[in-house]
TrEMBL record, chains A, B:
<keyword id="KW-0808">Transferase</keyword>
<dbReference type="InterPro" id="IPR000600">
    <property type="entry name" value="ROK"/>
</dbReference>
<dbReference type="GO" id="GO:0016301">
    <property type="term" value="F:kinase activity"/>
</dbReference>
<keyword id="KW-0418">Kinase</keyword>
<protein>
    <submittedName>
        <fullName>Sugar kinase</fullName>
    </submittedName>
</protein>
<comment type="similarity">
    <text>Belongs to the ROK (NagC/XylR) family.</text>
</comment>
<dbReference type="InterPro" id="IPR043129">
    <property type="entry name" value="ATPase_NBD"/>
</dbReference>
<dbReference type="InterPro" id="IPR036390">
    <property type="entry name" value="WH_DNA-bd_sf"/>
</dbReference>
<dbReference type="InterPro" id="IPR036388">
    <property type="entry name" value="WH-like_DNA-bd_sf"/>
</dbReference>
<dbReference type="Pfam" id="PF00480">
    <property type="entry name" value="ROK"/>
</dbReference>
Length: 393, 393
């Protein structure tokens, strides 16, 4: 029969599938690729040859296995040579990194970020960090793209940061600013930090192999990256996952978004510090100080932590009833809060969650830790490469 | 290059795509199919011939267009001959229908459902209705499957109804019971009524062409069918969308799920009737009576409706912040409540929703009305056919 989708399209899909496999799993034998991708040996051979010619993978002998028979060749991603730039713009710091195909951070720089810094001011600082990294990198290194993780609502179409309530950003074109400043001739993809971290943990972290995941990320505010049926949930404009602005207390405390009683007013920085009687303090260090004080027996800190933990479980139960996830991951300050108040979180989750939704849900902390935003930002760039491996370069 | 996916697989995909197109859009010229599916004319011809040979479509001359040149042949779904059985199990009634390929309800039966009826008791009643419909149908009619819409949490793997808080069902194997009773030799697919209605509105109703949709369905309780990036959100076990059990009032009114302050305690049947001072009343008629009374100037009914409308907007705002949908559809009793209190719903949504999430969201009532659960249940069955058109039969 005459077929519709072109041979080219199928080839592109297969090239992407093979490259994705070694990107996620690292060095893989041809035999394993044959099984994992459901393609025959000669197809795997031809795809590997194409990817090797493009400088994306190498092929070589495996380590000695001790088994008889001709060993299957091993396909490895060009992890040291092919890389993406990854940026993370956080409330109080800026980070830049080179992340290799395969997900390893090859080099990194970190800068303080004065609160109030605009996109136009942040871009040259990050460009400086990139310049340093460029001087240190191998001559034959190839950049396949750049990704940015930001605290804020990011418009899917063009990466405009519509609103970063905690950074004060309104309609900041960080992607454009970085592209101009860096002179990188590949597009810069921008994503919300929780979405990006969820993407990273799903690709190669705590949620590897899980198709339905909520990654809860706390900074000053709280957001979620959501994986549904194995895919990132973005919403219509790219703004989904604003779970911190789920109202849990009618006429509750004033939130930075202008509304009242948002979930993050109870579990975010301000809520915890307020409950601990430390309303004048700010920042993650101040939050950690509350957990420390609770640990050391400070009664008011203990009450504040237990109360915030209970609210954390309260909102997580709502999300579990809405999404029926397999896993909830607590990242950023939510990790600290979860670890400090796990009993309260679980107790409230168990009383508010529907039994069928609670059945298989696992609570976890991130595996990639602080690197998740960088690794995830790089994944945004690699995603373009994997969609059409031979088109990039 | 030697390709992986077989010609058979591609052919199956193309057959499914063509059949889906005429299933959704009705009679379509070959020329339009060529454009819509991106396949060439000879491929469309071959696919159509295969589908016609299988009795799924017919091909014929179009109506006179008045334009010069050889007119393009028109492909029509075999809407009268090829059908699915669709069942809807509701709190106070049972419905059965034959739905033709293309989505038209060909025949239907409705029965009262005494509250408390089990799956084993419901199946023979529905089988009786089917027997009647069989006697009335053309001799060459072909059943391609059966779908069931139920109020309750449905396990994705096997269609077991884990919990129907409003029907009292716990672990009721309605799919199996119906399959046995009906002697239909195709599998019965079971889905939650809100999911199924959302599916129908997305395929051929108010949300046609929208990729991110929340369909809010009210009965005694409240649930949502969610379409994200064009696909049904099911969650890990099939239980997603239990938005009625998002807690909105800490230590609020007792819910049928055993918890307190669930959203449905404020916007569902019990909440509205309680607020209207009619706690002894039950059922949709009683709810409609409250809306009527409010319309006629009954002060307590007006307060109850405004309050429930405000709570409706409150929860919708939370969902809009979480999902960033393009459209929210109000079905079942939520339609009545929305129409009675649209001002309150919009006002609360506007004050609690994040501006970027509110930008493009449209509020709508269903286009398929009462038929949505039946049409959607049939879609569950057609989905299997469309995945592999020549395998069924």
């Amino acid at each position: 029969m005459r077929v519709g989708p072109s041979q080219d399209e199928i080839r592109r899909q297969n090239l992407g599938a093979l490259l994705r496999y070694v990107h996620v799993h690292g060095a893989t034998t041809r035999a394993e690729l044959t099984t994992a991708l459901g393609l025959n040996r000669s197809t795997i051979g031809a795809l590997t040859a194409d990817l090797a010619a493009a400088g994306l993978v190498t092929e070589g002998a495996p380590k000695e296995t001790g088994r008889a028979g001709r060993p299957s060749l091993v396909v490895r991603p060009e992890s040291d040579r092919v890389f993406a730039y990854a940026y993370s713009i956080e409330v109080d710091r800026l980070r830049a990194a080179r992340v290799g195909l395969g997900g390893a951070v090859l080099d990194r720089r970190e800068l303080d970020r004065p609160r109030g810094l605009t996109a136009a001011e942040a871009a040259p600082l990050l460009a400086g960090a990139v310049k340093e990294m460029r001087q240190a990198m191998p001559e034959d290194a190839v950049c396949v793209g750049a990704g940015v993780a930001v605290c804020g609502m990011v418009r899917r179409d063009d990466g405009l940061v519509r609103l970063g309530p905690t950074t004060g950003w309104v309609d900041e074109p960080i992607g454009t600013a970085l592209g101009t400043e860096l002179g990188v001739d590949v597009p810069v993809t921008v994503g919300n930090v929780a979405d990006v971290a969820a993407f990273a943990e799903h690709a190669r972290g705590a949620a590897a192999g899980c198709d339905n995941v909520i990654y809860l990320y706390g900074d000053v505010g709280v957001g979620a990256g959501i994986i549904a049926a194995g895919r990132r949930l973005t919403g219509h404009g790219g703004y989904s996952g604003e779970v911190g602005h789920m109202v849990v207390v009618r006429d509750g405390a004033r939130c930075e978004c202008g509304n009242r009683g948002c979930w993050e007013t109870e579990i975010g920085e301000h809520g915890l510090l307020r409950a601990a009687g430390r309303s004048d303090a700010r920042g993650r260090e101040a939050m950690l100080a509350v957990f420390d004080a609770a640990d050391r027996g400070d009664a008011q800190a203990q009450i504040a932590v237990r109360q915030a933990g209970d609210w954390l479980g309260f909102g997580v139960a709502n999300l579990v009833n809405i999404f029926n996830p397999e896993m909830v991951i607590f990242g950023g300050t939510m990790r600290d809060l979860y670890l400090a108040a796990a009993a309260q979180v679980r107790s409230r989750l168990n009383s508010n969650g529907l039994p069928a939704c609670l059945e298989h849900v696992r609570l976890r902390t991130p595996k990639l830790g602080e690197d998740a935003p960088l690794v995830g930002a790089a994944e945004l760039a690699f995603d373009r490469l994997l969609a059409d491996p031979l088109d990039v370069n």
